[in-house]
Amino acid sequence: RSIKSLTTSPSSHILRRGYASEAAPDRKVAVLGAAGGIGQPLALLMKLNPLVSSLALYDIANTPGVAADVSHINTRSEVSGYSGEAELGKALEGADVVIIPAGVPRKPGMTRDDLFNINAGIVKGLCQAIAKYCPQALVNMISNPVNSTVPIAAEVFKKAGTYDPKRLFGVTTLDVVRAKTFYAGKAKVPVAEVNVPVVGGHAGITILPLFSQATPKANLSDAEITALTKRTQDGGTEVVEAKAGKGSATLSMAYAGAIFADACLKGLNGAPDVVECSYVQSTITELPFFASKVRLGKNGVEEVLGLGPLSDYEKEGLEKLKPQLQSSIEKGIKFANQ
Ligand code: NAD
Ligand code: LMR
Question: Which annotated residues bind substrate (predicted)?
Answer without folding.
Answer: 106, 112, 144, 178
